[in-house]
Amino acid sequence: MAKPLMAKATAVWLVDNTTISFKQIADFVGMHELEVQGIADGDVAAGVKGFDPIANNQLTQEEIDKAEKDPLHKLKLKFNPAAAGEEKRRGPRYTPLSKRQDRPNSILWLVKFHPELTDGQIAKLVGTTKPTIQSIRERTHWNIANMQPIDPVALGLCKQSELDAAVQKAAAKKAAEGGVMSDDERRKLVSTEQSLEMDAAPKIPTAIEGLETFSLSDDGDEEKEDEAVVDADSFFNLPKGGAEEDDEDDLRN
């Protein structure tokens, strides 16, 4: 159900200027009945100026009269173009002030680990602008030397489901374009749950790449090695004569 603009201020005005029940006002502005009663008692919304819903084209006087006569009547919001789409805003996500300093780190993480995401997708995820993303991609940001890539989900800038949805969309676009992806890129383009379920692919270090087909010996070499081992015993049997006969001659002399 659509809610009026400045709900609390509207509730203050209705409490002060009408005899509508607290329940009716609470249902109309989206508050709890006890909160509306607190407004009447002066415990809630102290200092808040009332917002006239009639003057601001959100209610009609006839609707208020019906509600005052019938306690079961529910107030209906008058169509107001200014209130259309208020619950779901379009454009960049709002980021609290306390987390805005972490946005560059999260952008750096997304650019580094998910380069397939477009600037528009990153802007929606963390609530930033395309020039900022571009400066981080090109490493021309004024604070790039002090940045550390940090997961935006860990920082609370977006939900894991939102990040997964963006990655899946990028994966579908990549597949439609027919681009060839490496194993690492393919693993990045799946959701977190799918990635955790995948088996780790064995990898060979680049320094010894190609040695997986190299063998120190083959079937033919094994026979030669066996012969070499057999002949090794005779290698240490010195022939008679030579050094031994020379020693005997020295002893006789």
Automatic annotation (TrEMBL):
Name the domain of life this protein comes from.
Answer: Bacteria
User: Which segments show compositional bias classed as Acidic residues?
Assistant: 218-230, 244-253
Q: Region Disordered: what ranges?
A: 79-100, 213-253
Q: What is this protein called?
A: Cytoplasmic protein
| Organism field | Ruegeria arenilitoris
